[in-house]
Amino acid sequence: MQKIKDLTDAQLEELAKKFSPAIYFHSLESFFPCSIEHLLKDGTLRRYKDDGKTIDPSFERKNLKQEDLAEYSHPNFFVDINSSQFPGMYDKATKTVKAPMYYVIRRFENAIEIVYPLLYANQGGQTVIADRVLSSFHCILHSYGEHQGDLECVTVRLAPKNNDEFYISEVMYEAHGNTEKYSSGEFYCEGTHPVAYASLNGHGTYNGLAYNHYKDLGGMAGFVIVTDLLDNKGPKWRPWQSSEFKQLRLTDDMGPTTEHWVKFKGRLGAQQKNTLLSATYLDGTKLNEPDWYFVDKVDFLALLINKLPKNIRDGNGPSGLGNRDYMQPVPAGATLPICPENSTVKTFLFGIKGNDEGWISVINNDATGWRDIYKSKWSSRYVGNAVTSFKLNGHPYIFALRLSDEAFISRINDDGKGWTDIYKGKWSSNYVAIRSFELKDHPYLFALKGNNEAYISRINDDGKGWTDIYKGKWDSNYVGSAITTFMLNGHPHIFALKNNDVAYISRINDDGKGWTDIYKGKWSSRYVAIKSFELNGHPYLFALRGSDEAFITRINDDGKGWVDVYKGKWSSNYVGTAIAPFKHDGQPHIFALKRNSEGWISRINEDGRGWVDLCKGAKWSSDYVAVVSYELDVNLAP
User: Fold this and answer.
1) Domain 345-540+623-633: which topology?
2) Taking the CB of the first residue and of the last residue of the chain, which one, N or C, has fewer CB atoms within 10 A?
3) Do residues 446 and 401 touch, judged by C-beta distance below 8 A?
4) What is the DSSP letter of 4?
5) Mind listing the pLDDT tens digit for each residue in 259-306?
6) 313 or 235, which is more confident?
7) Which PANTHER family match (predicted)?
8) What is 188-211 written as a DSSP string?
């Protein structure tokens, strides 16, 4: 493979384009990236006196060029940006960003870092949640948070692999001087392009796969929560499609450059003191009187001033590139830590709370925890044992039955952030359990009623509804949370436990119209949940008893019975409908929720004889009706 130090500028530019980030702006964003020429147009270069506060009236430069920034690069200088330039380079007609994509190449012995500075002419007002009891609301506070100019960045770390190719080892997202780092596979991407969410007004860049719709920047519950707001419904900048790429170099020995503004150590924007002048809702309309009263009242303001970060009250433009560490030469022989290339297919958890909320969480790369990425309204009174996930045309869906005899099918959104209800239909009452299974690569439902009947339903080809294809006798007294499906030799089976300590294995018929009981055996009592998982291509059962014991059982090769391979201690008080097996790095894992609002993740040992707890009692809110798992590819490329 060609050595990193031998790569040409042309090759490096191709890498910069190939791995450049896609920037997702908020749907209400008004200030977009720009070029340095756009920022300087009709602006004025000014100078502070040595006290750093008083403007020197004897110095003023207009008709600015980049060379002026290189000549007057001292930190006492600043650019007073003309307000006509604040919107940036955004074409409303075509809904495209016209700014160039700047990039900085940092060569290490074993990796390449590409820094993508994002330049703006203005930052808007601070977004907050006015956290009033029972009626909180989002709003924008003016002039808090406002300042001329803004400079954020996304850094992509590339590691080499075979055949002169590179992969993304890590991505660093910068927001207001703070950086968050994520390893391969832990962020959205569009093909080879990592996705960065830019926050409303403040432009901080974030990993959309790590946050819900906002980042909490501080404050106090009951008064104010300072936020960076995120969504994926606004303009999307894909610079590799149409933008000019411009490499930035600080010194001549790093290569020739026409981007002289890189030497500027002053501020790209005038200094201002911010106070509360007004407030609007996110769409720009004025607050109504009760909401403004809450925002404006004295005790709220006193708290707000104490809680807002200093840089939000002090509206200073950003420091120029000459002060940035990423512009400095890389020391000879320096190396970087490298993360292995990970799959973009991630495991997600979908949970329904009793207070009418639905949540989506994504499992971390190392399976030692999760990140909540979505929360929204989900109507109440669902049957925990009748919530299941299934895959249709390679995409995850949720089937959920309500106590009111209604059933819903919801399609998980392509980016995993939310769902779309695609079908609502009548479903009779008194069901003990509903489980999904696949037959000939198509999803079906097995549904057991309390009146000794069982149904098999085929999900329609478009996911919008189902067709009942079989109704048969199934005797009563089964444990709803101890019914599970599994695949054996490419065919679906049902394991079901009765309250009288008898368990059955039934094979679904080849046409899906019915089943054949192939085994009946003794199984001890008091089980909280039984879930199936696959290990080395073979089905197993994880069974949790109320006596603080858990068992791992291997299904026999012919499906006619089982063999207990492990019995171990497992603490009590788990929610039977909130235990969800999933596969991670080819190995089975168990997510389990306790009633004291703790979530656990355990990895099944390679021989199936026991487990290792990877996440012990992490906080998970209470009152969950059901939790199910599914997989989704976070590569959002069309």
Assistant:
1) Methylamine Dehydrogenase; Chain H (2.130.10)
2) C
3) no
4) G
5) 999 999 999 999 999 988 999 999 999 999 999 999 888 556 656 667
6) 235
7) DUF946 FAMILY PROTEIN, VACUOLAR PROTEIN SORTING-ASSOCIATED PROTEIN 62
8) -EETTEEEEEEPTTT--EE-TTS-
